[in-house]
Amino acid sequence: MKFERHFTTGKRDIYSDIEFQYSTSEIRNMNGSVVFKAENVETPNFWSQVATDILAQKYFRKAGIAKKLKKVEETGVPSWLWKSVPDEQALKKLPVQKRFIGETSCKQVFDRLAGTWTYWGWKGNYFSSEKDAKIYYDEMRFMLAHQMAAPNSPQWFNTGLNWSYGIDGPSQGHFYVDPYTNKLTTSKSAYEHPQPHACFIQSINDDLVNDGGIMDLWVREARLFKYGSGTGSNFSQLRGSGENLSGGGKSSGLMSFLKIGDRSAGAIKSGGTTRRAAKMVTVDIDHPDIEEYIEWKVVEEEKVAALVTGSKIIEKHMQSILSSTSNSNYSKEDQTDPTINKELKNSILEAKRSMVPQNYIDKILQLSKQGYTSIKFKTYDTDWDSEAYNTVSGQNSNNSIRVTNDFLKSVETDGDWDLIKRTDKSVFKTIKSNDLWDKIGNAAWSCADPGLQYDTTINEWHTCPQGGKINASNPCSEYMFLDDTACNLASLNLMRFKNKDNSFDTTSFEHAVKLWTLTLEISVLMAQFPSKEIAQNSFDYRTLGLGFANIGGYLMASAIPYDSTEGRSLCAAITALMSGVSYSTSALIAKELGGFPKYKKNAADMMRVIKNHRNAAHGKKIGYDKLSILPVPLVANECPDRKLLNSARLAWDNAFKLGAQHGFRNAQTTVIAPTGTIGLIMDCDTTGIEPDFALVKFKKLAGGGYFKIINRIVPAALNALGYSEEQISIIENYAVGHGNIKNCPTINEKNLRSKGFGDEQFKILETSLSSAFDMKFVFNRYTFGDEFCKNILNFTDKQLNDISFDMLKALGYSKEEIETANTHVCGAMTLEGAPDLKEKHLPVFDCANICGRIGKRFLSVDSHIEMMAASQPFISGAISKTINMPSTASVEDCKEAYMHSWKLGIKANALYRDGSKLSQPLSSSISDIEEDEEAMEAVKPITERVIERVIREVRRSRLPERRKGYTQKATVGGHKVYLRTGEYENGEIGEIFIDMHKEGAAFRSLMNNFAIAVSIGLQYGVPLDEFVEAFTFTRFEPQGLVTGNDTIKMATSILDYIFRELAISYLDRHDLGHVNREEISEEIADKVDTHSQLINNSKKLSRGYVRQELELTVLQGGQAKVKAFAGNNIQSSDVVFENNADFSTNTIDNKQTAIQKAKIQGYEGEACGECGNFTLVRNGTCMKCNTCGSTSGCS
Questions:
Q1: Cα–Cα distance between 295 and 309 in angstroms, integer?
Q2: How far apart are CA 968 and CA 555, in angstroms?
C-alpha cells in the first residue's frame, strides 16, 4: 500500500518539534505510602502527570533490557528495520549490575511499538516501497507522541520487546498461523510473536473434563487472566439442574459450575496479575436455570448484607452481655446469673430479640465465668474487595442474558415462555414472560446485574453467519463475534481532531483511521494466541477493534450538549466516518493481499451488512435487508457539520464499492471500547462514548498531592458560547473556589479569632484550604491537633471521637453559613448558579452524575441510550457503555430502559443505578435531613468496622529500645534458618530478623532486606495475617523437611516456613502446623516454671509458640509460679485481658471521609484494588482508577 505524509515532513526527526520534560512518577495510596516511583521519566511537556504515571508504571519495560545492543542483519529487510539483540561482547566490558536496564523514555516505547508494526508490515508485504514503510513509521510515532490515538494495553506491554531489545524466553503454550505457509504453528518463543489482543471470546461444551469442556475452560481462562486479557463465554450449552446424565444420575446444574469458574477467576485475580471482572458470563433466556441465574447476584448481595449486619449485631450484643457481667453490685457468682443480675437479664433478652443464637449467648456467659472481660468477634464491612464480598460468589464477572426478539415480543403481549432442556430440547418449564422480565428488572435495580444482549439484533448485523452464530462477548461487551476469536483494540482521541472553528478535521481523521486500521491488521499477522482454535479463527476472520474516545469532551468543547439532537448527530457522523474509512481500508488491503480466508463463504452476508450500514449513513428509513429492528439513521439536517456528514456518506459509498470489487481483509473493523487506561495516557477528558463525570477535576502533582482545576474543556465551551475572558474567570472561580477564607462573608479570620483561632491555625488553614473540596474535611482534629481542639475550643474526647461530629456546626455556624463559606472557599464544583452564566447554556455542561454539593442536574437515562443508538448503526461490533440511573429510579424504569434500548437497535445494555451496590453508599438526599436527629438515626448506615489494612494515619509505631521476642532455630531442606522477633510492650510483633547459616551472600542479603521490609510494614500497621496470606505456600528452593521446630515439619520455601512459624506463634493459626497442639501444650507447661522470675515483671513472655492459646499469667497469692492455659481452660477468674474487640473510630472516620470526598469529586466511592485510592469512575461497563489507571475491563 502507498502512503502520504500528513502529520510529518520527512525532513527532520519527528521528535525535534516536541519539547520533552523529565519528571518523577510517583503513585501513593490513601495512607501516603508509595505504591510506585520512577525518576527521570521522559515525556512530552504537554503530557499530564497522570499520563506520565500510566506510561511509567504500566507500560515501561522495567528490567531486562541490555544496555548495549546491536542490529542483526536480515535479508530483504531495510537496515533501519533490523532487529536488535544484546551485544554480548560490549556487555562484558560493563559491571554486571549495569548491564541491564529498563525503559525510561516515551521515545523508547513509541519506537518499539511503531518499529515492530513496521517490521511485521514489511514482512507481510503491506508496503509498496521502503519509502511507504518509513512514512508509516514516522506518522505512527507522531500520533502516539501527540496523544492522537493509542492501542490497547497488551500492545504497550508486549509488542516490540523482541524486535527492539532481543528479549526472549521459552514458549508459554501459544499458537499462531504462519502467514507464509498458512499452517497452524506452535510458538517456540514467548516474545518473537507478541500477544497484542485484549479481548477474547471462548466456547464451552457440556463436557466435564475433556478439551473444550467445563474444566478445560477454567484453564483457558487462566492463561488469559494471567497476562491481563479479558474473556467471555456463553454457558447456555451446559445442562440445567436435575437434567439426566449419560451415566445415570442428575446434573448439578449450570450454577454450580458458574460458581466454580467464579472462584477460579477470583483466585487468579488475587495473584495480582489481573483485574477484577475481566470476564463475561452470558446465558440464553430459555435456559432451564435462567431464573436462578438472574437472581444469582441479588442473593449474593443479600448474603453480604446479612454477613455485615449480622456480625455487627452479634458483636454488639455479646459485648453488652459481657459488660453486664461486670456489675460490682453483685458477687462473682451472681454477676453471671441472669435470674439475679437484672442488667444481664435485659442484655440477654435484647440479644434474643435481635435473633442472636442461644449458643452464642451461652458461650459468652461461659467466657465471663472463666475470667474474660472482653472478647474479639470478627465483623465484616461492605467494601467491594472485603472478606464479606470474597466470601460470596459471582463477584469476578459481568453477567449478561441473551434475549431474543421473540421473548421481548412475548413480554409486550404478556405471553408464555418455554425454558428448554439442553439434553433432549424438550420443554423444562413454561412461565409467564412478564414474570421473567420482572425478575430481570428487579435484579438490575438491586445489584446492576445482569445486563442484556439483544441476540436477534446482534446476529442480524453478523457479517459471517456461515461461520456460526454470535453467542457471547468480551467482558466489556464491545466485541461480539464467533466463539474462540480475539480482537485487538485501538482508539482515536477526538479532541485532537477538533479545529479551532469547532469543526471536525475530517482529513486528519481519515488519515489516522487508515493507518490504525492497517496497524490492527498487522497486529493479527504478528500475534500469537492462547489456543489453537483462537489462532486459527483469528487468521480466518481477522477481526479488528478500532474505536474512539472523548466524544463527551469534544461535544462540550464545541458548546453542544451531550443530550441534544446535534450532539447525537455529530457522534453518528464521526462513527460513520470512522467505520466507513476503516472498511474501505480493509478492502484496499484485500486488493493487495486478498480477503480474509472465510470471506468468500460469507461474501453475500457481509455485503448485505455493509449495505445496511451505508443506508443508515445516507439517512434512509426503509430499504434495509433482513433487519427486524431498523437502525437510527444519520439525518442530514440534524448534523451541524456538513463536511463531516458528506465525508461519512462518501466513506460508506467507497466501502461498499471497494468491498464489492475486492472483498474485505477483515470480518469486523470497529467497536467502541471503554478506553480506560489508554484514555488516561491520551489525557482524554472523557472515555469511549461516555459523557464527563465531573466538571471540576483534581489534577495530580508530581511527587503526590492534587490541586483543583476546572475541567479544561469548560473554558473552551464558555468561549465558544461567547463569554468574555473576565466572565469565564468569574465562572471558573465560582466552580473551583478561592482556596482561602479571605473576603468570605460567613466564616472568616475575624470571627474565627473570636472563637480562639490564632496565627498558627490560620497558617494551617492557608495550606489546607487551597486543595480542599469541603471545609469540614479541614476543620477537624487531624488538622489542628487534639491539644488545640480540647484546650482552646473546649471540645471533649467524646465529640472528637464521634465520626458524625461537625466542628464548624459545633463552633456555632449555621448550615447556610457553612454552605456559603464552602462555595466561596472550595467552589460549587458545578456551574449551576454561576454568576453571568445563562440558564439556557447549562445543558452543555451536564455530566453523568450530579456535580458538587449544590448541583441538581445530570444526564437522563434516555440521553445515554439515544447516544448509543445514534452510534450503533455504524459500528461492526458493539458499544461498551454504562447507562447511569439515579438512586430514585424504579424497577419499572430499569425495565423501560432495557425495552427502549432494544427498540432503538442497540446490541447490548448495562444499567447502573446509583447505590445499587452495598459497597456504594447513596450520594443524595441524606444531607437534606441531617438537622433531624431522629430521621438521621433512622437512615444512618451501620457503622462499619474497617478491616485492619486500612491504616488510620501515616505514622510509624516505634519499638521500645529494649524489647522482648524469641529466637527460633530450624533447618529447612538442609539449610539452617534463624528467626528472631521483636515485640511491643503489649506483646504484638513489630519486627523480624532472618539469617541463613552458610548461605550465599546474595540470598542471605536478600532475606535480610526482606525482613527489614516486613518489619517496616508491621510498624506502619500492616497486619501480620496479610503477610501470612501472601507468603505461605510460596514454592522455591530451599524447601523440604523442617527440623528443629516443634510445630512445623515441612515447608515449600524459606518464606513459607517463616510465616507459618509467625502465624502459629502470634495468630493462633494451628492449621498451618503439622503437630497436634495438645502435645505442644503439655511440653510448654512443663517448661514454663524455669522462667518464673522473668514473668514476675512481665505479663507476657514470648515463647515462640501459640501466643493466644498459651498465655503466661502470674497467679494470685504472691507466688512466682506460672501456669499455662490453652483455649478456654482458664484457672483464674481474675485474669485481665486486653480489649481486642475495640477499634479506632479514627479509622472509620478516615474511611467514611474518603468515601464522602470521592463522591463529592464525582468518583464512585469505592477504593481501587491496586493503589487503594478512592478514584474509581464508571468506564463503559467497567471501572477505571484515575490515579493508577487500573481497569476492571480488558482494554
A1: 21
A2: 67
Alpha-carbon torsion angle 679, 685, 686, 688, nearest 10: -40
Select from 586, 577, 762 the least CA-distant residue to 667: 586
pLDDT in tens, 103-162: 999 999 999 999 999 999 999 999 999 999 999 999 999 999 999 999 999 899 899 999
Q: For the chain, what is the largest distance between any 2 Cα atoms, rounded to a whole number of angstroms?
A: 104
Confirm whether 474 is a catalytic residue: yes
Beta strands in 690-762 (DSSP E): 696-700, 706-710
Record the cell numbers describing residue 586, joined without a space.
Answer: 480493509
Q: Catalytic residue among 434, 474, 884, 1179, which?
A: 474
Contact predicate 175/531, CB 8 Å: yes
DSSP 809-874: HHTT--HHHHHHHHHHHH--SSSTT-TT--GGGGGGG--SS--TTT------HHHHHHHHHHHGGG
- What the block records as the C-alpha cell of 421 is 432442556
Q: Which residue has the cell 492522537?
A: 148
Cα separation of 606 and 263, whole Å? Answer: 40
Average the pLDDT over each of 165-179, 708-722, 1099-1113 and give the range with the smallest value: 1099-1113
Q: C-alpha grid cell for residue 631?
A: 437502525
953 as an active site residue: the answer is: no
Residue 351 and residue 334 in contact, taking contact as beta carbons nearer than 8 Å: no
Pairing state of beta strands 1182-1185 and 1176-1179? antiparallel
Q: Which of 192, 300, 478, 690 is catalytic?
A: 478
Give the Cβ contact number of residue 409 at 10 Å: 12
What contacts 395, CB < 8 A, 6 or more positions away?
262, 266, 276, 300, 384, 389
Annotation marks residue 476 as catalytic: yes
User: Quick one: which H or E segment has residue 500?
Assistant: none
SS3 assignment, position 422:
coil
Cβ within 8 Å of residue 243, ≥6 positions away: 250, 251, 253, 288, 421, 422, 423, 428
- Across 849-867, b (16+ Cβ under 10 Å) vs e yields bbbbbebeebbebbbbbbb
Q: What is the dihedral of CA 993, 995, 1000, 1005, to 10 degrees?
A: 10
- From residue 490, give the alpha-carbon distance in Å to each of 52, 447, 524: 19, 31, 13
Q: How far apart are CA 5 and CA 8, in angstroms?
A: 6
Task: Give 297-336 pLDDT, tens digit per residue.
Answer: 999 999 999 999 999 999 999 999 999 998 888 888 888 8
Distance of alpha carbon 443 from alpha carbon 451, whole angstroms: 10
C-alpha cell at 898: 432495557
Measured between alpha carbons, how far is 847 from 694 in angstroms, rounded to an integer?
6
CA distances from 1074 to 452, 840, 851, 1049, 1083 (A): 50, 74, 58, 6, 16
Q: Give the C-alpha separation, 564 to 546, whole Å.
A: 25
SS3 category, 315: helix
| H/E run at residue 995 | strand 989-996
In whole angstroms, give the CA distance from residue 295 to residue 290. Answer: 9
The C-alpha cell that represents 36 in the structure block: 510506585
Of the candidates 1139, 1131, 1104, 1127, the residue with the CA atom closest to the CA atom of residue 1115: 1131
Query: C-alpha distances in angstroms, 339 versus 345, 397, 420, 1110?
Result: 7, 53, 61, 34
Name the catalytic one among 447, 464, 476, 744.
476
**Which residues, 6+ apart, have CB-to-CB distance to 794 below 8 Å?**
none
What is the pTM (predicted TM-score) of this model? Answer: 0.78
